[in-house]
Design goal:
Chain A: It is found in: Periplasm. The complex is a heterodimer of chains A (420) and B (306). With 420 residues, chain A is an alpha/beta fold. Chain A is 55% helix and 13% strand. In chain A, a hairpin with a 2-residue loop joins strand 4 and strand 5. Chain A is globular. The chains are: A alpha/beta (420), B mainly alpha (306).
């Protein structure tokens, strides 16, 4: 009898320890996060996510890959997926998400999305970006607005200038500035910066429908249209508004030209705001943020985390926890305050955000309703890496040579066809 | 293992140690040989195969013929890159060899402080192309470097804006690359000049030959192997050049200064066009082969004859 009780005790202990083990394994959501946010405010922002994740009982395996704006990370990701051992969450964006989803490498978050009501809080365009075949495969972290003019109010005041609302006004203002000896446009001659200016002009002169037809549908008639020629005419004008030494200049150096009053305006996404803030400048007073002329349009750029196919329960639990936290109001607020962008979900309280961010949120809402919200081509939201590269090749060659607009549209059509 | 066993069956006094002594060199080289076969030639073959597929983000293996090569040669940036390679390569090799040779001859004239001068000329070689590129980017930038310096000294009309001129920017690459490599070429020539038999030179002096004639007719022809080695070292540097472009011009203005290696990187790693990237890599390999194979052929034939 004694031995039986002993056996029973031992067995119970064993069983319960196994059960406990199972419970503790379930309570250990693990996520290996592959990202390229390794510097400054971005590193701070990702640290906020990590702390949040760990506070909720998760185990965070950090896999940062520095350098190359994600090129180095892409190489790591490719080899990890090919060797059958993908990280749980990877910072990729735009059409790359669709490419990985088509390769069958991404998991499915649709159930979680339904529980959390993502369909109601995410702008429809953003849903399209992070969904594949109607299934959530990624979660957006933030929204950057690309079509901003960052202006120095003192320089504008010198010529009694107002921030422009049309491209004609922009040109008139720039001519006045040039006559007063101020460089109208601070710009860095790198293909992606040329492309950033180009897409704001395309949206401004053609509107959202034209923009999508050209960049998403790659409709040849649209690309060769007279409107596109006018866009290139405007680009030729812009070339005259930049200073002589713009070749190869980094974007943040162009931003500091505006800060110092050497140049009056810069067309750049809202990451430029971080430079102003870091230099102790106050929005609305020391610098102005106005949308580029586009009649209520909005060009969106968004970072996101894609969830790859993982097999273990720990990893799956980790992905779900991570996704829930990323789209939670708390994280959306802290992260975007660090990063200078705005929350990806709508309805986050605006009181802690600065003037420019609040304006961005209001404009996003109205552009999303009016259908004037488009994804950025230059930042790989609307166009894949190959198409974007082909467009940028032509835009940058046109900007740096005396190519006519007629030739430019022909070359654009040719390059896009070859890239597919 | 097999060979060991078969060796054992052969009756001999010390079969194992004999076999070992005969094959020790092969054994030592075998691991490196295996690694090179796999990691160099194996991957060349793999790249070659991928260049015949429609691989995009991930490699695929269905054969598509010359699809990528046809696309490649239709692309303006690739044609620009090959033209740049031709212009940059030929000027860089020519100028570096001529300059290096002249420097070596000048240093060979028993000048004072030759050791110091030699080091000064050779030092650029110790710097990486990234540093060279960045430094020359500042020197050649019209708003920061030579042009603004000259203008601030009062020469208002001075203009030197090659770096931001799409037509001329490729020549700034030549300037930086020559600055870096001519010292190295000089060192090779100097070593060879020291090796020339002084008896011959003395004899030529006695016969009343002038110094320039001695160099042109007697010394330089004996340096032919050095010319050849310089040529091949500089050629592969030119074809490989990637970092100098990234640091100095970033491929710009526009894409007027990209090189084939930059194109390959852009396509493979940025634009998810692995097949196209592989095709461009094979074209680069073909370029090097076109130069190296005739050289190897002539070298091997000479050895057989000699």
């Amino acid at each position: 009898m004694k031995s039986f009780t002993q056996k029973l005790v031992v067995t119970t202990a064993l069983v319960s320890s196994i059960a406990l083990g199972a419970i503790s394994a379930q309570a250990e959501p693990t996520a290996e996060v592959l990202h390229y946010w390794t510097s400054g405010s971005e590193a701070k922002a990702v640290k906020a996510l990590k702390e949040d994740f760990e506070a909720n009982g998760g185990k965070w395996l950090d896999a940062p890959v520095a350098g190359g704006g994600g090129d180095a990370q892409a190489a790591v990701l490719r080899s990890r997926v090919l060797s059958g051992n993908p990280p749980a969450a990877v910072q990729i964006k735009g059409l790359s998400i669709q490419e990985w989803a088509e390769a069958g490498a991404l998991g499915d978050l649709t159930k979680l999305g339904e529980e959390e009501g993502w369909d109601d809080v995410l702008p429809p365009l953003l849903q399209k970006i992070v969904k594949h075949d109607g299934k959530y495969v990624a979660v957006p972290v933030n929204i950057h607005r690309v079509d901003w003019i960052w202006a120095n109010p003192e320089s504008l005041a010198k010529v009694d200038g107002e921030p422009p609302r049309t491209w004609e006004e922009f040109n008139a203002l720039a001519d006045k500035l040039q006559a007063a000896g101020i460089t109208p446009l601070a710009h860095g001659g790198q293909p992606w910066q040329d492309g950033t200016v180009f897409e704001t002009v395309v949206l401004g002169m053609g509107g959202a429908e034209f923009y999508n037809k050209a960049f998403i549908e790659k409709d040849i008639a649209t690309i060769k249209s007279d409107t596109m020629k006018k866009v290139f005419d405007q680009m030729r004008k812009m070339r005259g508004y930049v200073d002589a030494d713009f070749s190869g200049r980094d974007w943040n150096l162009a931003t500091s030209m505006v800060m110092r009053g050497e140049a009056a305006m810069q067309i750049m996404g809202d990451w430029a705001k971080g430079e102003f803030i870091a230099a102790g400048k106050v929005p609305g007073k020391d610098f102005l943020c106005v949308p580029t002329p586009s009649n209520g349009g909005y060009i969106l750029n968004s970072d996101s985390f894609a969830m790859f196919n993982v097999s273990s329960e720990d990893d799956k639990a980790g992905q779900a926890l991570l996704a829930r936290l990323i789209l939670g109001e708390k994280f959306q607020e802290t992260f975007n305050l660090y990063k200078g962008s705005i929350p990806a979900r709508m309805g986050v309280p605006t009181d802690k955000f600065d003037e420019c961010a609040v304006k961005s949120m209001v404009d996003l809402q109205s552009a999303s309703e009016s259908g004037a919200l488009v994804g950025s081509m230059a930042h790989e939201i609307a166009a894949s890496g190959a198409i974007r590269g082909a467009i940028l090749d032509v835009v940058t060659e046109h900007f740096n040579s005396d190519m006519t607009s007629d030739v430019a549209v022909e070359r654009l059509a040719e390059a896009i066809e070859l890239a597919e | 293992m097999m060979s060991l066993m078969t060796q054992k069956t052969i009756p001999a006094k010390q079969p194992l140690s004999d076999w070992f002594r005969r094959n020790v060199a092969k054994l030592v080289v075998a691991p490196t040989f295996g690694l090179i076969i796999f990691f160099v030639y194996g991957f060349i073959a793999w790249t070659g195969y991928v260049s015949f597929t429609k691989s995009k983000m991930l490699p695929t293996y269905s054969f598509e013929g010359f699809y990528q090569y046809i696309r490649l040669w239709k692309m303006t940036p690739w044609n620009v890159a090959m033209e740049n390679l031709l212009v940059f390569g030929s000027l860089f090799i020519l100028i570096a060899i001529v300059l290096g040779c002249l420097l070596a001859i000048a240093l060979d004239q028993k000048v004072r402080a030759e050791g110091v001068l030699r080091t000064v000329y050779l030092y650029p070689m110790a710097i990486s192309f990234i540093i060279t590129g960045t430094a020359w980017k500042w020197i050649l930038n019209p708003g920061l470097g030579i042009q603004s310096l000259m203008q601030s000294w009062g020469w208002e009309s001075f203009a030197f804006d090659w770096l931001i001129n799409s037509e001329m920017a490729v020549y700034t690459l030549v300037i930086a690359a020559v600055w870096q490599s001519s010292g190295f070429v000089m060192a090779l020539f100097l070593a060879a000049l020291r090796g020339v038999d002084s008896e011959i030179i003395k004899a030529a002096y006695l016969d009343g030959a002038s110094l320039s004639r001695i160099y042109l007719v007697i010394i330089l022809p004996t340096l032919r192997p050095v010319f050849l080695s310089c040529f091949f070292i500089l050629t592969h540097m030119a074809v490989k050049s990637f970092d100098l472009v990234v640091a100095l011009t970033g491929g710009g203005p526009g894409y007027s200064t990209i090189m084939p290696a930059n194109f390959m990187y852009e396509m493979t790693f940025r634009r998810n066009q692995i097949g196209l990237g592989a095709a461009s890599a094979m074209m680069m390999l073909a370029t090097v082969m076109a130069i190296v194979i005739p050289y190897l052929y002539s070298e091997l034939r000479e050895k057989k004859n000699g």
